[in-house]
Amino acid sequence: MTQELTSQWLAEIKALKQQIAELQAEHDAGWQSAEKWRKLYNTEAEQRRTDAQMAQQTIASLKAQIQQMQGIEAAQLDDPTATTAIQQEVEQLESVEELKARLIAVTKERDRLLQALKTEQDNHSQTRKSLTTALGDAIDGLTKERGSQ
After folding, report:
1. Cβ(82)–Cβ(88) under 8 Å?
2. String of b and e for 77-106 (b: at least 16 CB within 10 Å)?
3. CA separation for the pair 120, 130 (Å, rounded)
4. Distance between CA 116 and CA 111 in Å, rounded?
5. Tens of pLDDT, residue by residue, the chain (149 residues)
6. For residues 28 and 53, what is the distance between their CA atoms, to the nearest angstrom?
């Protein structure tokens, strides 16, 4: 009877060890799953923060552009001489066709002036580069001359 009791206890211990192993495996799997979800959550949260920050920067940039445009419009509206001259010129136009033709001419002139400004800016940049190079060469030459004396 003692041997039978011992066998039962050993079988019970073996079954309990098996349950403990299974529970430990389930615990580990649950922990790994929770860690995976935690990482996904953190990645998503970081992306949301980045998106929100970019949106705030875009909003700030657009607000600055709007304020700049409003400032330009306000400056143009504050010049009564220019406004009066433009009003007089428009009043002299007698038909919609003349207005359209004048608008086309003004648009072409604006485009030409924008192109001239871009060309001037490019020329200025090239001149600055050339002068910087020439100045650097002159300094190098002067340094070599002083070093050889």
Report:
1. no
2. eeeeeeeeeeeeeeeeeeeeeeeeeeeeee
3. 15
4. 9
5. 688 888 899 999 999 999 999 999 999 999 999 899 999 998 998 998 998 898 888 888 887 877 777 666 565 556 667 667 767 776 776 777 777 787 888 889 889 988 999 999 999 989 988 888 888 888 888 888 887 76
6. 37
Q: Where are the alpha helices (DSSP H) in 78-95?
A: 80-92
- Tell me how long the chain is: 149
Q: What is the token pair recorded at 17?
A: 């060890």
pTM here is 0.38
According to DSSP H, which parts of the chain are helical? 2-77, 80-92, 96-148
From 75, 108, 105, select the one nearest 93 (Cα to Cα). 105
What's the rounded Cα separation, in Å, for the pair 102 and 89? Answer: 10
